[in-house]
Queue: 2 jobs
Job 1
Amino acid sequence: MLHNLFRATVFAASIMSVGGVYFAAPAYAEMVFNRGNSADPESLDPHKTSTVYEANILRDLFEGLVMQDADANLIPGAAEGWTVSDDGTVYTFKLRADGKWSDGTPVTADDFVYSFRRLLDPATGAEYASMLYVVKNGEDVNTGKMKPEELAVKAVDPTTFEVTLKAPTPYFLEMLTHQSTYPVNKASIEKLGNDWIKAGNLVSNGAFTLAEFIPNDHIKVVKSKTFHGAADVKLDVVNYFPTEDRSTAIKRFEAGEIDYNDDIPTEQMADLKAKFGDQLKIGPYLGTYYYAIKTDKAPWDNVELRNAVSMAIDRDFLAEKVWQNSMLPGYSMVPPGIEGYTSAMAKFADMSQIDREDEAKKILEKLGYGPDKPLKMEIRYNTSENHKNTAVAIQEQLKPLGIDVTMLNTDTKTHYGHLEQKGDFDVARAGWIADYKDPESFLGISRKASGNNYSDFDNADYEAAMDKAAAAGGKPEERMKDLEAAERILIDEVGQIPLLYYSYKNLVSSKVEGYSPNVMDVHPSRFISKTE
Amino acid sequence: MFVYVIRRFLTAIPTLFVIVTLAFFLIRVAPGGPFNQERGLSPEIKANLEAQFGLDKPLWHQYLNYLNNLLHGNFGPSYNLPDFTVGELFANGLPISIQLGASALTLALIIGGTLGIVAALHQNRAADYAVIATATAGSTIPTFVIAPIIQLVFALSWNLIPVGGWANGALLNKIGPVITLALPQIAIVARLMRGSMIESLRSNHIRTARAMGLSQWSVVIRHALRGAVLPIISYAGPAAAALLTGSIIVETIFAIPGVGRYFVDAALNRDYTLVMGTVVVIAIFTIVFNLIVDILYAVVDPRVRYD
């Protein structure tokens, strides 16, 4: 009664209040999916994005040459099929005849030529331009040494798009699932300039079109009438709500305001499991949480010492106690879950933690460290309660071995600014999430020339093994074996210290259908529906 | 008075200039930049990005550019949200923060003021103790504790209001954030009002008024309140500037798209133009509200004259 009275009063007041009236009364029963996304996208321009928060939305708005299904398997997208030349360098995509932009115009090979050039054009300032460095002349275009027109892509005819690669790249198709390779509409960009991306202007070719974007509030996308697969798309509206505050997200989910959230507050894991049961989905996700270790600086230039530190860290404790089982203990850089690939685990992975500690102690003694000469190590980490707790746990674990650990916490920009500018440190927290489902995504960051090689790992055998894998491009099985051999070197040489594998942590309402958990944590809305 | 207001506005210009200049160079001293992130960018790609935003030019050049744009009312693009200009972000968010802040302040002045008067009139009696105890509790419990409690009780247990979100400004969505913002302010206003009212009630002109046989209502509202309200005005000026420009805690917990979050997010993201935008906005609000306070002083207190 009190409840109704309150509602009635507030309703009456809301009718009277000026400028604050909101009626949500759809004319017919629309199927609306309210989707929590941990952060707002930086941009809806596919060429100006880099994170998974944008990927989640852009996957609904745009369609690349290839896409992912509900299980993150590769499926045809704007291209209905493709052929690869015998030497593995020329990809010819046949675009579907019924591919249309949301303004009704056809999606053509010219659109892809324009989009690939735009991603690499230095004037675009694309963060993920390197996704197309595998295309012949790609890197030279992006670094200003060549003109965008010199990029090796061409429209053979309106529905045939041809790409020539620098070298055989077996994961090229997987790379094309990344949002940075999606097509953009040339006509609207040329007409509207920077405003092309605004709601009301944005022309896209995906299953949904943009209706509203109010920063920090919501992004509303509605089913596209021109999408070739529109008949199979069940949702009418998808509202993306940025759920920065995970605790609020949980409460909004509980209240039925959102049907799905992509993350949870891990510290509440046990309670959430009890409260939500099957609606909480947790499983392996292609991501590695690791510590970079300065391999070119004494005393860390000693492989044995790096190995001793690595093996003394109790990863089970980190996963269970610090991360509440929202992470799994990690012993390799490439997490398990990539078909055809077996990760190279650290050799001590099979030993018990007690044996590992004994072994580590022996190594440290041999190297002359002990009570009289303690080993000093500083851990740098970026601000986060869990990163701090991880570092504190490691500090405690290494203390009995006579390793004197200190910690340095900085905000994220300072942290990565320091690492990227090759600043001095001992050990630093880092993480890597796969851009595409291939070991290369994880192994490439330890190559000498990579900007993400914070450890300054420089090993000729590793470089040779990675080059060999690249050369074996045309033979997938051989290539995977070569990559495994490369990872074996990286792990044995302790180029990085892998600690944990990430997990996806989704909250999915029991009303949601068509959701399928997968290692890429990819859930296109076009395969999702909702029961009332 | 008019001349005084004009003079105050003119002196605000150099003040703003100094604030903008200091902020511009201070944020650049912070290590890292807008394009440092978990995924490292190659030097070439970073250079492309910096060139796009003019960050490749010498600092003095960027500074002059910024001043020039600012004079034309252009705050520049946001580096971390490039789909929007800083002006657009504020045009979207500021009205929302102002609505919430103004509602909270109005509630605080009415409820806090009334509670303060009641406490003062019943000094050292039950009503007074009740108000003081509530006010002390209200001002010591932080908003990040109040907000989740409101969500748990009003939204999840009683299902009266939504947990969060703005829903294009629906009244029910405003209740949680407004109460959270108002509670500590109510407590502060009540305590201020109680103190100044007690003092005002003891003054000679009130004693005279009572001696002349004026009613209690007339003494309190017409005579005592005038003197008692001055400390409230001094407090309400800066408080309004802070409340109307949003609160990161309340906006984050209730998922409100105001501008409060930009004050912290922009600095952490090294979104230089957004940082500058927030600095300019808060500086203008502070200057304007200080001026309003001074004018109100003259209106309320006949002893204050600016001519």
Job 2
Amino acid sequence: MINARTIVPLLAALGLLVILPLFLSPNLLNAAIKMMIAALFALAFALAMGQAGMLSFGHSAYYGLGAFAALHLMRAVEHKLFGFPTPMIPLAGALIGFLFGLVFGWFATQRTGVYFSMVTLALAELLFTLAPTWNALFGGESGISTIRGPSWGINFGSDADVYYLTLGWFVVSAWCMWAFTKTPVGRLALALRDNEQRVRFLGFNTHVARTLIFAISCLFTGVAGALLAIANEAANYTIFSAQASANVVLQTFIGGAGTFFGPALGAMIMTFFARITSDLTRSWLLYQGLIFVLVMLFAPQGLGGLADLHARKVRTNGWKHLVAPYLLCLVVGLLLIAGLVFVVESIHVVLTDAYLAKRAAAKGEWVPYELFGQTFEPFSPVTWAIPIMLVAIGSTLLPVARRITARAWLAATRDVPDEPIAPSASAAPVAPPS
Amino acid sequence: MEYIVVSVLNGVVHGLLLFMVSAGLTLIFGMMGVLNFAHAWFYMLGAYVGFTLTRLGGFWIGLLLAPIVAGLAGVLVERYMLRRVHKYGHAHELLLTFGLAFIIEEVIKLFYGDALVSYQMPNYMRFAAFTIFETNYPFYRLFMGAVALAMFVILYLLLTRTRVGIVVRAATYRPTTVEALGHNLPVVYMAVFAGGSALAGLAGAVAGAFYPTGPNMAVDFGTLVFVVVVIGGLGSVVGALIASLMIGLFISFSVGLNVSIADLFGLIGLGSWASDVGGLFTLQLSTIANSMPFLLMLLVLLIRPAGLMGDRQ
């Protein structure tokens, strides 16, 4: 599979990531670190989910355990109990993640489907509820903190050092996971997802295989957790929350669980989105929830799935048909988003205490409010016309855009067979009875 | 004695509340197979609707309309969202409802703010039902228990004694056969989902007037309702009641007990050794009361995955 078409973009992306810190502000550099950690977490999760079809709803357990393992190791180094090179600390996360993955996974993989999800959820919730009361190990509610020690001539004081450390581990781990999918066990994972019974019939011990795959997923999850511990130099029990488990599931599906790099893409985008919008607005979780719902409704295969679809189906010169319709879709989308954001943020401003105090001072009058650096009269027609116009134009254009895009899609994909011609187990040469 | 009686009373009422919230989910999860993560958020929606209507019209109007509003929200969610993603599988349904949970919570926060709202029961319901060990036992707790029991009886009779109930239960096992017999399966599913959401909404309106009503009320129940449904057995209303009572009693008893695993070792003369080891051995039962439901769920899943009253895997 390694050919010039895949290796060149990958090398280009890697080169970009290497020189990136030169151009980023400290805040963005920190965001980039968190994005890479989230991407690694999502890749590790997708190893169990996308490859083996195991929807773990408690991956935060191994993420948190990896983080706490790394923190305890860093503390031991800090207190001069023994020496350990800082860049190798994620190994502790990997080890703990793998061990707990084996033990917990052995129990969890006895069940399949939603029951598997429920067992993993219960295990993670157990840790989440135990951690705040278990002072010695998890530092109670405040958690534990430590500092990064210098080693190998690098002092790891700056974010740039942490960035390169994270990048190194990200690249190595991602490569290992990609290579794993090519090994016989990795192929077995796909078979387990598609038809476990057949795999068992072929003589494999599916329970052992599922446990092993789950544990390997947990291993890399532990690495991601350890990297987070190194970056933050602290962690507390909230790292185990169901919210954290759910986040990685969501990011994976937004990126596309069926593709290898999709989950990493989804995690990076959503982490960046959260980072940016949480500074700008208090309703950012609302927008995030809307994104989840819209992606699930209209792009269930995720961003990676969409990209994959285009790569497979669009003809070499088909793109010239698609550029204009996609631009139109973008405009329509932006109009609708702008209208929605205007309404939500207006409601938000009008209901803040500061605005209510202003109204009280003006004896209950609806005084003008400020939004996006402008002043708006709450009951002026102009104020109401803005969102109404935005949404009206957007929704009139929406069906038009859909029609044009559908036509362009046909034009762009003409002459390409519907299914990729590849021998696969599911496409057995047995015609269904008609 | 006082400890036991008070713990039983509190545990039973807390368990009944838990049942009210999770009764709808056991129908939705058990009969439609939808992992509805947003279920506890319908409970929250019910509480806020109750709060708003109590201000506008009165407590009883709120109690009446909260389940209707939650049920209508359920109809919209099922008809226009879940039905579309059903073919992609469990994960997509779960994630969709997860997004919905965000949306419901954030929209409520947008209008009502981050603080608790003062949703209160009417004053004429604020009296002590009886006095026990010099403590007044509020009447409203009994009222909540009565609503939950009524809900259980009606739901049980509806599912076992009426034609509608037969169709709903049959749709769980043989959906295609039910459809072939001429029943409109999508409508059945929509009704089950709406009904389940309405029950959660009613629970919110009833319980919100007694417990704090705030943005965190849904998160507290978010995963606990799944625990109840799994322990009770998917789709089993009786199982959900037993599981809720078990969890309620478990929690209310363990918060008052200061024993640890080290104390158990003490019975066989290894107490001091276990205390020296520390860690898990010296955690007090009272501090890990919140872990108990999940431990219970884990045991049930590993030993009897169909749940207490469930009959399927």
